[in-house]
Amino acid sequence: MLIAGKKRIFVVTVWLVLTSLFATAVNAQNIPQLATANRPSPITDTFGDRLRTLANESIAGLQNRVAAGVPFLPAERTSRLDRLRQLPDGNDPELTEKYRRILEAYRIELDYAKSIETYQDVLHNAGSQRLVEFLRVGRLGLYYQTLDGRESGVWDAKQGQWRHLASEDNEDISLDLRIAKKLEPPQLMMVPLFGAESLPRSVRSSGENPQPPWTVAATEPAEMALAGKESLFAALREFAANLKSDYPWPLLGLAGVTESNLLERLADSRAMATPEGVAELFALLNKLLDAQSRSLKFNAAVYAPTGVATEREVVRIGDFGLIADGRYLAYNRDTARLAEIPRQPGSAILAQARQFAGQESASLCRVAIDPSSGQTLQLLVQIPSLAERIDQGGPVGYLILVLAGLALTLSVYRFAQLTRAGKCMRRQLLGGNWQPDNPLGRMLSKLEQSPMNDDEALYLVIEDALAAEQAKLDYGLTFLKLIAAIAPMLGLLGTVTGMIETFQAIALQGSGDPKLMSGGISEALVTTVEGLVTAIPILLLHSLLSGKSQALGALLEAHASAALAQRLEARHPVPGNP
């Protein structure tokens, strides 16, 4: 038994020794392979070098654009690019971070075209320095105004200098600054801009296959060779996908098949961008920045409010407006269609839009833009017209308007009558014969034709004639006063009925959707306005007509007293008078 146990121990020991020797031999064979796998391949070395070159070239291009372009926020933009240039790009994580920051810088530059801002900074012009207030309108225009608001200027990108603005434009800049600071309610901004430029035709036809390829398929050998750059490819894919969805490319003249294919290929998760594809992406970004820096003209199909499409020349004012034939358009991202806004701004704004469309690119012209990138213009469609406002008042509102119409008609009629009566009375005083076409002539004629000689009887004749003529002069004034009194009460009635309708909507549908309550609230407010708008002018007209009637009545009374005194003096002559 002892000998058998020793044999088992010996066998186990030999087996462990052989196993250790075999594992050591296998590891020795794998060490060169692992070293080869960890060593960068020539493919990845070349790929990385080209990406580093493209990164540095893109940073230099952005720095040149900031130095030679519109000088807005120069310190902030230059500092951002300087920090980019100082970033290391040695290994893959550093290169990925550098590309991420470069794409972020491009995104910031692109987003400048969508915003309007104001800030204070020092203006360097003609060797002088002044603290002024700047207004930046996207990438289209940069303006300044002195702190006292008396002087304004615009940056002329073609001349590379500031241009002084006229006093009329200075007033517009003052209002635009208040709108940009949100001190005024949202509205269209009137700004002087340089005329639109026609888009140059693309040098590459849409049917060409671009060479070299922008991406390569994510096959297993490619993935192994480019291992470590997954984060870089992910950043490029995300940026290309956002760029494709964020910008309405048909409005930039860059939406040929070439640009769309580029972004789709770069955003494809099944492919990896080549250096040529990255270079094309940077070229496309520079084209986009150039297009955002000026107003552009291009031909496109525009749908009228009737739904009929026609080919028109469209003027794109950055991200702040689209004009065709002097009318404003809206771009629908869902359908990728240009449509004319059914309800347009005022005629003066449309006339300026028509003038801007025909302006030379080197000349300034005032034009209205939408600082909310189309939202304010879209709200114009939802603003009710005068007829729609009146209809919101309901039956009570229509009753108020009927009474207002009757009162206005009666007021005009009575004013004409009183004016004519006053002229006839003045003509009657100049003549000798009493005419029946005026109150004074009828009253004095009645006094002369009276056969009574009693003093009291003559007094009664005059009082009766005065009362009759005064009643004619005051005709309709009581009705006007009544309408002025009941119009606000009818408005209050409409307010009550409108609130009842609102509470019924809340009881049936709840208060989650304010649109369900808008009908009753509109009726309540519109009837109140109609009642006040009716009562105030009717009160003024009543006061005017009442004063005119009292003045004519006082004239009648004075001449009636004089005529009666003469009649009584003729009957009872005073001793000593001839």
TrEMBL record:
<keyword id="KW-0472">Membrane</keyword>
<feature type="signal peptide">
    <location>
        <begin position="1"/>
        <end position="28"/>
    </location>
</feature>
<feature type="transmembrane region" description="Helical">
    <location>
        <begin position="396"/>
        <end position="416"/>
    </location>
</feature>
<feature type="domain" description="MotA/TolQ/ExbB proton channel">
    <location>
        <begin position="439"/>
        <end position="554"/>
    </location>
</feature>
<feature type="transmembrane region" description="Helical">
    <location>
        <begin position="479"/>
        <end position="500"/>
    </location>
</feature>
<dbReference type="InterPro" id="IPR050790">
    <property type="entry name" value="ExbB/TolQ_transport"/>
</dbReference>
<keyword id="KW-0813">Transport</keyword>
<protein>
    <submittedName>
        <fullName>DUF3450 family protein</fullName>
    </submittedName>
</protein>
<keyword id="KW-0653">Protein transport</keyword>
<comment type="similarity">
    <text>Belongs to the exbB/tolQ family.</text>
</comment>
<keyword id="KW-0812">Transmembrane</keyword>
<dbReference type="InterPro" id="IPR016866">
    <property type="entry name" value="UCP028069"/>
</dbReference>
<keyword id="KW-1003">Cell membrane</keyword>
<feature type="transmembrane region" description="Helical">
    <location>
        <begin position="520"/>
        <end position="541"/>
    </location>
</feature>
<keyword id="KW-1133">Transmembrane helix</keyword>
<dbReference type="Pfam" id="PF11932">
    <property type="entry name" value="DUF3450"/>
</dbReference>
<dbReference type="InterPro" id="IPR002898">
    <property type="entry name" value="MotA_ExbB_proton_chnl"/>
</dbReference>
<keyword id="KW-0732">Signal</keyword>
<dbReference type="Pfam" id="PF01618">
    <property type="entry name" value="MotA_ExbB"/>
</dbReference>
